[in-house]
Amino acid sequence: MFSASFLSAYVHRFETVVKVAMNYLFTPSNADKAILNEGKLFTEKLLLHRTVGIKFERVDEGGNLVGRVYHPAGDIAYEVLKSGFSKLNVPKNIDFDADYYKTLKEA
Question: Domain range holding 48?
Fold first, then answer.
């Protein structure tokens, strides 16, 4: 885990580790360190050593994969937003999942 919305994941099929940014989420790096650490621990508690699904949607300008993280207990991005550990990032393009964005906005 790098932050509440940016993590590394092991992909069994390709036997490799990838960096994944959760779609539509942004964790400001200039936030209070205690809050950043608490958000990181929150996400770790939900995901660490768990088998989850990841739907990759695109690659960002930094070369990181961007996608959704699916957990049997629910939507991780929604839980991170609801807990206040990340902010909703407004999509810059018109080709995005408006229904999913609306769901996250309600968190």
Answer: 6-105
Query: Which uninterrupted H or E stretch holds 11?
Result: strand 6-11
Please say whether the dihedral angle defined by the alpha carbons of residues 72, 103, 46 and 5, taken in this order, is positive or negative: positive
pLDDT of residue 41: 92
Residue 53 lies in a domain: yes
CATH of the domain at 20: 2.40.50.90
CA distance 71 to 59: 21
Q: What is the pLDDT of residue 91?
A: 66
Residue 1 within any structural domain of the chain = no
DSSP annotation string for 35-85: HHHHHHHHHHHHHTT---EEEEEEE-TTS-EEEEEEETTEEHHHHHHHTTS
Two tokens, residue 106: 């309600």
